[in-house]
Design goal:
three-stranded antiparallel β-sheet; 20% helix; four-stranded mixed β-sheet; 42% strand; 3 helices; homodimer; 12 strands; alpha+beta; 184 residues
């Protein structure tokens, strides 16, 4: 079977504000099946930062994630605002959440957060020579503990369940590829 | 900072049907910040199958993902129904989407799809000795092309952008750990 895109019409907004943008469409698949309603969620892109200190430690954060009601070990990260690029966004989130900064940033790539349901991508940045330049400056509702871990410990956390967030696990996988930790 | 869970009250349903369950709550964080509305999306758990043929090929699928408007290389997978376990769900989805089946299943673990916003988990199953037992039997709206790839090719696809879905990239990372392809 050759896979082809679908078409959509009749888009209507179900709920939209600063945090949520839920729409429904009438979708016709490539083989002519009609799916109505087909729901999509529009979000801004997100960026995550894998920040290495001069000593080779990774700047990780621990925070509570309310929907799944779990305390998770994650990479610093947040929204890519319309006016900034993924590299700037990941550096800003690193600074706000951890107090660390770096001016040696490599863009590693992107993946889709959940391409069946969500419009947005997650961008992955590797920041080297990250140093603590001040106190964290979290936004309201951000309560973040900073933890420094070795690269190997982060890799093990990502595959062992100690990191629970799919997007952050996927980001660590991309980083491990760049750092030569994969045997393929 | 010690990270503690938040509390919530005043839950109201914004939109709920067979496909979407969007709620808003009034959330009080551990440090007393009030977030209202805080939106969560309830979904059933999902399961993905990394199925290996007797020849060591991986049974992959290619399909169109409408929200992000991309054609993606993914693992077979789908919803875990209330009455079935993740192993059964991954085997059923493998059979429906590809026509392959296996009775040698290992449960590798789970991660949260998006724990800040979504309630659900993604379960990862390794199915060995997968053989084609019939034609695929996709659901309406599932248009799926089956592709057999080597384990190494799937690993490279996951870190190179050829696989675009965060959850499937994360699942491949867990599998590579089980298969001894990680150097940590």
């Amino acid at each position: 079977m050759v896979i082809r895109p679908w078409t959509a019409d009749g888009r209507r907004t179900i709920h939209r504000d600063r945090w949520v943008d839920l729409s429904a469409e009438r979708v016709t698949t490539a083989t002519g099946a009609v799916l109505d309603p087909y729901y999509t969620l529009a979000y801004p892109d997100w960026a995550v930062a894998f920040a290495l200190t001069p000593e080779g430690q990774v700047v990780m954060i621990r925070q509570y994630r309310h929907a799944a009601a779990l305390i998770d070990l994650e990479l610093p990260g947040g929204c890519v605002d319309p006016e900034d690029a993924p590299l700037l966004a990941s550096r800003r989130e690193l600074r706000e959440e951890t107090g660390y900064d770096s001016d040696e940033a490599d863009y590693l790539g992107r993946f889709a957060a959940n391409p069946a349901l969500q419009t947005n991508y997650v961008h992955v940045t590797l920041l080297r020579n990250a140093v603590r330049i001040g106190e964290p400056a979290p936004e309201a509702g951000e309560e973040v503990a900073v933890e420094l871990l070795s690269v190997e410990a982060v890799g093990r956390a990502a595959v062992s369940g100690a990191m629970a967030n799919a997007m952050h696990i996927a980001a660590v996988f991309l980083v491990m590829g760049r750092l030569g930790k994969l045997q393929f």
